[in-house]
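Hey L., structure's done. Input below.
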Amino acid sequence: MRSSRAKSRLLAATALALMLALAGCKTTRTTDSTGSIAIPSGPRTEAEWRRDVDTYGTRYRADTRDVEAAVRYANALRGIGQRTQAAAVLEQASIQSPNNRVVAGAYGRALADAGNHAQALDVLSRAHSPDQPDWRILSAQGAVLDQMGRPEEAQRYYASALNIAPDEPSVLSNLGLSYALSKDLPKAEQTLRRAIAHPGADRRVRQNLALVIGLQGRFDEAEQLARADLPKEEASANVAYLRQMLKQPNNWKTLAKGK
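Output:
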């Protein structure tokens, strides 16, 4: 019989697969970075990421001690799916700048992207301190815990982040998805609606809300919301994929029955 933790991880994997489907295929993104290096955090095209790979890759190779170049280069690598290489670049940067919290934050995110969740949590814990907490890092720590199938713990980190940055839509979006992983879809929807009411909310927040609405079987409403950011055909295809996923043997409803 499958353990509670195994079910939770399978549920998380199902949700992440659905999130990827509803996010659309024409843009990619990485989680935002913290500190003084301004990293584009919104959806970007692959062409934009590849330009950054060329620009900052050249600059990084010219001077591997250039922290800004390393962080930007790694962020661009993550943007095109080169997660292992991004982590390797930031590992070297962290060795050369062990006390740089910007590097630690970026390295922790890259490790999480590469699936090294336990190491990511350890590195992220060094990217800020209890007396100087960073809401972005707290949110990133929560996201890692969600990926590890530990949503209840993740939600405590999101709550701490929201104490620092009330109504921050990116944190609310993560929290909403975490509630979904906890099998509380009404609370997930409520939280995501709060997120999209914020002027700073972007298409990712709306697509996450579309996911949660779809998981509740309200497919027409989910598709209508998805169309706010996606072409009609793409929105319809995403919702069709969601319908199909929920028909599978290990679908959301089946998993949600387990404790």
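DSSP finds 14 helices and no strands in the chain. The chain has a mean pLDDT of 81.

-- N.
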